Amino acid sequence: MWLGIWLAVAGLVLGVLLGLNIPLVLPQVYAKYLSVAALAALDSVFGGIRAAMEDQFDNTVFISGFFSNALLAAGLAFIGERLGIDLYLAAVVAFGVRLFQNLAIIRRHLFEKLK
Amino acid sequence: MKLSTYLSLGLVALVLGVLIVFQFRVTRHIEQGVPAGRAQELALELRQLEKDKSKLGAEANDLSLKLEQVTRGQTEAEKALKDELAKARLLAGLVPVTGPGIELTLDNPPQQAGGRGPASLYAIRDEDLLRVINELRGAGAEALSINGQRIVAHTEIRWAAPFINVNLTRIVPPYHILAIGKPDNLKSALEIPGGLVEYLQDLGVQVKIQPYDRLTIPGYSRTTEFRYAKPVVKG
Question: What digits encode the pLDDT tens for the residues A28-75?
Fold first, then answer.
């Protein structure tokens, strides 16, 4: 468990360093897609933490969910742009709601553990 | 937990970190710059303006070329007009002219001391001058003057006793008549047997003809205004 957390933190730090040092700036047109993808990824991560706390963590589900959510969110934003509908809002709302729900459940689990 | 789980956790965290930092950087970049939509709009506008600019540049080139042509045409037209004007002034007798010709000097018969009768009886009259002028014109004189008065189309030679008026100017004897033309022709026209010189000499007038290789006749110096005569507009 702790090893997993440390690994995750190490991966995050490495990713941040990597992202800061890549001499490449995405065109502004893609900023919207990237933002929704990041949101979806965050949602998956929180879902994963929750699942881990409920002892239901499945690595395959987590990994596939992480990437498919990110890709779907970006794809939605892309299609919405082409269609003239702000479809990325759907991703924002859905993932946002789930983020808060997951956070609430994680909070409760943490409280139960602390008791 | 299995190793693959840890690996996947690390991978996911890595990807998440990259994603978030990238997004941070892009957002900061956007804040520094202009919004994406606006940028696109501006780029479109820029392209349009560049197109306009190149079009206008081509137009400017074309117009300057035309202007150059017109200027060239104008200088030619101006030159032609000036030539025409100079010709017209020459024809009208407004400019001094020079060339070969003769000088004809007529003087009244010398007053005899205590002579009988008025001197004007034998004096040169306007008709005499007119005949001389007419004869010279007929002999091909191209420019004529009497005592510095240029003979032009509306010159009068009129007896205004006791003077002769030419161009509204009094002239007095001796009369110096200058004529530009072929000196031989002019001279022979006057001196033809039974001609003007003989006639005038018969009257007692002193006649002297002097050919010149080069003499200068002044231009008509008064201004001419047409107050009644208008050109006919052909249409």
Answer: 777 778 888 888 888 888 888 888 888 888 888 888 888 898 888 888
Q: Which residues contact B4 (CB under 8 A, 6 or more apart)?
A: A59
List beta partners, residue B211.
B102
Using CB atoms, which residue from A11, A26, A29 is nearest to B10?
Answer: A11
List B residues 21-40 in contact with A (Cβ-Cβ < 8 A): 21-27, 29-30, 33, 35-36, 39-40
- Cβ burial of A8 (10 Å; 0-12, 13-18, 19+) is buried
What ipTM was reported for this prediction? Answer: 0.79
Tell me the chain B residues in contact with residue A37 when contact means C-beta distances shorter than 8 Å.
19
Smallest CA–CA separation between B48 and chain A, in Å? 21
Are B19 and A38 a contacting pair, CB within 8 Å?
yes
Residue B190 and residue B197 in contact, taking contact as beta carbons nearer than 8 Å: yes
Residues B46/B40, Cβ–Cβ less than 8 Å: no
Nearest to B175 by CA among B141, B124, B118: B124
β-sheet with B97-107: strand ranges across: B149-150, B143-146, B175-180, B97-107, B206-217
Three-state DSSP class for residue B210: strand
For A15, the closest of B4, B14, B27 (CB atoms) is B14
B13, two tokens: 């965290």
Query: Does the global pTM surpass 0.80?
Result: no
